[in-house]
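Study this protein:
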Amino acid sequence: MGIEAVVFDLDGVIIDSEEVWEEVRRGYVAEYDREFLPDTQDRMMGMSTPEWSGHLANEVGVPRTPEQVAADVLGRMAERYRTALPVIPGSVEAVRRLGTRFPLGLASSSARILIDQVLETAGLTDAFRVTLSTEEVPRGKPYPDVYLTAAEKLGLSPAVCAAVEDSSNGLRSAAAAGLAVIAVPHGVYPPASDALAQASLVVRNIAELTAETIDTLR
């Protein structure tokens, strides 16, 4: 049983946004004289918007409601993406290359406003048959919801879909959903060893990913 569709993560796979997220959220937390702990960024990677905004409000102690925190941070991120999108070299080409062979989906922990902004700025709005934010499903990564829903909307069993992921929670999410997992580890925020072990394939960078490579899965 071969792979019939590919579902991409966004942050850390198509755009190198984790450092931007950390910079924006760290600066935001500092404005309220709260402490951004060493593990704060790692804990929030893969969380949906309600989850990470709730974490900043309730755990880190930013004196704003989770809804206010989300609006504040997302507004700053969208502006960054409009003016200086941190596209990973080779990622747009990889999406286009695989799109000539497979129907594509996108399963991201980013909010819908950011997904749409990234795709518009990168010229990829027409590349994906399905795009999903974890805020549009019951639970964020590492739960399987977003990948299960992506496969369903593609009209396929998860067993014939491959996921392209970089983070620990993303790898766990895709594996829990039953997709074949392709890991593209981030150099600054590498996945945990137990999460990486769930990948069927590990590539050094997104530019290496080809349809022929994906055909070796399953």
Notes: The chain is about 45% helix and 10% strand. The two ends are 6 Å apart (CA to CA). Residues 66-83 form the longest helix (18 residues).
